[in-house]
Design goal:
Oligomer: single chain
Strand content: under 5%
Mean pLDDT: 81
Helix content: 40-55%
Protein name: NADH-ubiquinone oxidoreductase B12 subunit
InterPro entries: NDUFB3
Low-confidence stretches: none
Subcellular location: Mitochondrion inner membrane
Shape: rod-shaped
Largest sheet: none
Family: Belongs to the complex I NDUFB3 subunit family.
Number of strands: 0
Order of helices and strands: HHHH
Structural class: mainly alpha
Distance between the termini: 114 Å
Number of helices: 4
Keywords: Electron transport, Membrane, Mitochondrion, Mitochondrion inner membrane, Respiratory chain, Transmembrane, Transmembrane helix, Transport
Amino acid sequence: MAPRPSITGFDPKKFAAASANARGDPWARYEAWRYTGPFTRWNRFKGAFPGLGIATVAFAGYCVAEALFFKDEHGHHDMTT
């Protein structure tokens, strides 16, 4: 028994063949701008934490200065005399 033809004339197999793109995604050209130029993954991540680099260097400098110049000498001497 042969399949009955569609009343509307719509054939999903013909539609899929006509809309197939050799590259895959038909909207790829319209989406490409999101991942190029100033919108690359690195550029999007770079602006996520503004000031983090400066804060890290300042904190490291503070820790070094405290260790070198500000010695904690109170309360640690010998109390026997």
